[in-house]
Automatic annotation (TrEMBL):
Residues 41-257 form the G-protein coupled receptors family 1 profile domain. Its main location: membrane. Keywords: Cell membrane, G-protein coupled receptor, Glycoprotein, Membrane, Receptor, Transducer, Transmembrane, Transmembrane helix. The keyword Glycoprotein applies. One of its GO terms (cellular component) is plasma membrane. It comes from the Eukaryota. The lineage of its organism: Eukaryota, Metazoa, Chordata, Craniata, Vertebrata. This is Probable G-protein coupled receptor 141.
Amino acid sequence: MLEETTLFLNESATTSQPSIIHSDIARYTLITIYTVVFIGGTIGAIAMSFLLVKMNTLSVTTAAIVNLVVLHSLFLLTVPFRLYYYINQKWIFGFAFCKAVSAMMHIHMYLTLLFYIITLIIRWLIFFQWKDKVEFYRKLHAVAASATVWIVAIVFVLPVFIARYGKSGEYGNTTCFTFQQELKKPSVKALNYIIIAVVTAITCVFLGLQVFIFLKVVKKLPGSVWSHQEFWAQIKSLMFISVIIICFLPYHLFRIYYIQHIEEKQSATYNDICLSITAISCLDLLSFVISGNRFFKQKIIMLRDKLACC
């Protein structure tokens, strides 16, 4: 049985001795997803790194993207270990490292969401002309702000995750991502529900606001909107929200069902697959690079013209 947990979002089952992956279909699905994530995420991180050299280093948005590249890169370093386990169905890297790899999954998800929120808020401040630009006064300020986020995540949060992992049950040394007992605790259940509610609310509010802005831009622009830079800027903002909806929201919504059916092996498998889908957010950098390419824009315009003629 494939399961994943953290102090904040922990997997649970009632059995004290977890089985290894019980479904070949689920295993192959997970292997496929993580392989695509590793290849696409690595290409995207490298491509975006070259583009960042040309960007304004004082911009808060640039700082958020830089942190996103670092975050994805750190997470991608753990993906080969997951692939090894799913392929061989045996964990050989030690229990402590298993907990660290498991925790990184959730740290990656929520820090990615945080950087998305920061980027979208800045874009909206500029759009509504509340701010002409949002920048740090010095590069040192950008470094300090980024360091603060990483210190909280790596120095404080990660050690707590590792220290509290696997305290509610007995787990085998050759299995990983099978911490199942935490959701027996009422406090952990309550925390899960709170996080689900917060993520869902943020997604709905941000989607509604972005759709409003998008329609306002389309209505304001004369002629074909496809030729205007402002239209493409809103497309990029919509892409951030699309990643949240496609990658993060299904996992949180399914957890409502999973928390109430933690004894079912099938629900645990679906939960694992939903969790793996959150890793697809690593492909965002590649999509941003492609969408900002002039050739890509020209092809989109040509496709739109052909569809209009039909």
